[in-house]
Design goal:
Strand content: 25-35%
CATH topology of the largest domain: OB fold (Dihydrolipoamide Acetyltransferase, E2P)
CATH architecture of the largest domain: Beta Barrel
Helix content: 10-25%
Structural class: alpha+beta
Radius of gyration: 18 Å
Mean pLDDT: 86
Distance between the termini: 29 Å
CATH superfamily of the largest domain: Nucleic acid-binding proteins
Largest sheet: 5 strands, mixed, barrel
Low-confidence stretches: none
Order of helices and strands: HHHEEEEEEE
Number of domains: 2
Length: 186
């Protein structure tokens, strides 16, 4: 499902029918002209059409408890109870931390933005991550921790399957198995 279809589906859930062309036009304007990040542009388009039809958009802090396996759509705010499986080197100065988190249902990447001013996560520790937003890139979901997010350390460990570590830099021709995380440069 592409971004326009995802937005249209979210709007239909609220009883709003908007032409795909209208959604696409507003989305392209935000992304291409104003260089708004994809996930924020999706949220903005959804909120715009909700307001246009007299429906109040979800407030910050209205995140729902979720398991990693339940994350199947970008732009949703959730609360997660997870264990940090891996911390990775940030690929940009805008990123404070990046890595992999998991619970008993699966694992996914996370990014903690530098501007979020949140405490560092520690590999192997378990946390409650409140008010994090889902994102999707090339069919894979992740969560972003931003200024509105909250990190609470858990007293007990979250059970999570260990994720095989990436093997550092590899040649693209050496990637044979599906679902393998690798670092690509260049």
């Amino acid at each position: 499902m592409n971004e326009v279809e995802q937005i249209a589906s979210r709007l239909r859930e609220q009883g709003i029918d908007v032409a795909s062309e209208e959604i696409e036009s507003r989305l392209l304007l935000l992304v291409e002209k104003f260089h708004v990040p994809d996930s924020e542009a999706r949220r903005s388009v959804i909120n715009y059409f909700l307001k246009e039809h007299g429906i109040a958009p979800p407030r910050m802090g209205s995140a729902e408890p979720a398991k990693i396996s339940q994350i199947k759509e970008a732009g949703r705010w959730v609360n997660l109870e997870v264990r940090v499986l891996e911390i990775r080197e940030p690929t940009s100065s805008a990123i404070a931390q990046a890595g992999t988190i998991g619970d008993e249902t699966g694992s996914m990447r996370f990014v903690k933005w530098a501007k979020a001013d949140l405490p560092d996560l520690v590999e192997g520790q378990s946390y409650i991550l409140r008010n994090v937003v889902n994102d999707e890139y090339q069919g894979r979901f992740s969560v972003k921790l931003n200024r509105t997010s909250e990190i609470l350390e858990r007293d007990s460990q979250v059970q999570a399957a260990e994720v095989p570590r990436t093997s550092g830099q590899v040649k693209i021709s050496e990637i044979k198995e599906p679902g393998r995380w690798v670092d690509v440069k260049g």
